[in-house]
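Input sequence (435 aa), recorded before submission:
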Amino acid sequence: MTYLDTDKQTYADLSITETANNEQFLFSLFSRTETKEGKSLMMNWIMYPLSDLDMIRKRQEAVAWDALPELLLNEEELDFIEYYLAYRDQIREAHVLLSCATVIDRLLRYDSTRYVICRGVKLVIHLLHCLERWAKELDEDAPQLMKESARMVNDILSGSELGEVLEQTSGEERRLSNYTIDKYDYLFRCTRLLSLKELLSVLYLLDVCRTAHRVAKEKNFCCTPKVVETMDFSVEGVVHPFVKNVRENSWVMSRGNISIFTGSNMAGKSTTLKALTLAVWLAHCGLPVPVKSMVCPLYEGIYTSINLPDSLRDGRSHFMAEVLRIKEVMQKALTGKRCLVVLDEMFRGTNAKDAFEASLAVNELLKRFSCCHFLISTHILEYAKAFEKDPACCFYYMEAEIIDDAFVCHHRLLQGISEARVGYWVVKKLLAGLI
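Predicted structure, token format:
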């Protein structure tokens, strides 16, 4: 399996699993799994997006399947099985004489270790029967990921000691002798421990798919965005998943490999860039995406420069941090990887003239990386206009205007370059009486 490359700055910018600025983090969208291990697996999916088209499509197909079954065991039972399998006390091979010699003692004296072993053995046997039935009854039109899981279950159970357990306990799960419990306990916690872990992973996969499917239904997300091996990139009805009463927007990389976003402060440029990037991220996780539909390339890397910190310790200014981040990203692009790069407000840490000239220089360099897409927001209209006729660039802006002496943000993404200049109006409005 091939994973998409990214870095710590991108995780922070997109608030993937945690955030320092009170934003909701992406994992919270899908964190309502029914099991603890299911939550860990979901975290793994979100933390490590794929660059593997076949696996992405398998996940999408499984999540979109309307016939996903209920979990075969409840959370408490699965937690106890995990506890039992990790329990290290009294792991020994079964012996008839020892089992017989201790039977009276076990009847007369409560032994917490014995309780863990007895209940753990019975629950594992129940698990084996449930998985065997599920694998046998799986529909022929089931998603490939489910079929592969069913094949794994059958392979583990057939022709092994676990298969013998199924035969020996059919209809007799709760009528087990002390010797039989001791024998199965050694088999489960020692001989076939790894096999049981693999079998449990099937239930956690079901948990993740069921949770993602439920989120898609509740929030009207798209389960099957189209991930392609070309450079086609378009989105219809994209929203930021954590913005309430948000307007849906559509966008397409209509030409070239650079899309420049303009618009006034507070119009929503940064939020739109994050919405587009999160949509691509989730698509590469194989999870539902907050869009009506989407076509995006199979990227090998995603990198962002949105909330860059300066560093007092290193004596690094914000401007220097920006330059070094752009250099770092371009070095990734130089490897020939197909990357999505998001640059929010390049060179905000320097004066307007320097920012304009530096943006022109960077834009000329980015045009060379035809295998990458660059989404860039800017306040510098002169920078956008300098490339207005350039076939390497397309342009979008967030609509905002002054109406009846009020600043109105429509949060609508339109093609073209914004002409809005409202900064001075905002200053006059908020500092009225001081100027």
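Checked by second reader. DSSP finds 16 helices and ten strands in the chain.
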